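Regression test case RT-17, inverse folding.

Input:
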């Protein structure tokens, strides 16, 4: 979500500065390892008493409200999601963010909500563990019935790339928040600048999504 559909870097940095001040921890230290991981796991490193879903969901739910003006959509995101929705193609959001954060961003940005949404609260272990993607894959396969389809993951963080690969997926990494070298070393199958390079072509006769990858930085 953050870094793949929405460029929320400035908003998230403000959020972690706010949380860091509450915890008495240098926000810059938190930011070194927080991206792509669940807040509850990051906060647990510094204050176990606040590592609970009531606190985290409330704090993340305020991000789009307080810092919405600091976020913009990733180039190409709106077009790609609109194409998937128009074709009734199967897609999901699998994110380290809470439900309050994800739905808040989608509302603020005016972007479509997928039929399948996997959020931080849905799994016992966050990325780079593959549980979230395995859960998302199960939900997509349930919709497809007995047809077992390959699933393509779009990610922006090394932790997310590792999770997608561990779940048995091919991964397109966006170089929006990390370097090409970091994404490559995590095992990304393709690396692109943003979603303008990922074009929905259509659905095949058996319901498989056809995607064209343009101007890849790495393959």
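Golden output:
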């Amino acid at each position: 979500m953050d870094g793949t559909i929405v460029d929320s870097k400035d908003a998230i940095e403000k959020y972690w500065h706010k949380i860091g001040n509450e915890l008495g921890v240098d926000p810059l230290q938190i930011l070194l390892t927080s991206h792509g991981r669940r807040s509850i796991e990051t906060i647990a490193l510094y204050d176990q008493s606040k590592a609970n879903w009531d606190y985290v969901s409330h704090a993340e739910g305020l991000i789009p409200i307080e810092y919405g003006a600091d976020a913009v959509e990733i180039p190409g995101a709106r077009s790609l999601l609109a194409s998937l929705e128009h074709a009734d193609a199967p897609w999901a959001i699998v994110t380290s963010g809470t439900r309050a954060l994800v739905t808040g961003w989608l509302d603020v940005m005016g972007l479509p909500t997928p039929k399948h949404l996997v959020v931080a609260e849905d799994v016992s272990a966050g990325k780079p563990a593959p549980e979230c993607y395995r859960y998302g894959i199960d939900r997509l396969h349930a919709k497809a019935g007995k047809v077992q389809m390959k699933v393509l993951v779009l990610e922006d963080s090394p932790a997310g790339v590792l999770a997608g690969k561990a779940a048995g997926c091919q991964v397109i990494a966006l170089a929006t928040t990390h370097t090409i070298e970091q994404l490559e070393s995590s095992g990304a199958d393709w690396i692109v600048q943003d979603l303008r390079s990922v074009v929905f072509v259509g659905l095949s006769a058996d319901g498989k999504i056809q995607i064209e990858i343009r101007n890849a930085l790495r393959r």
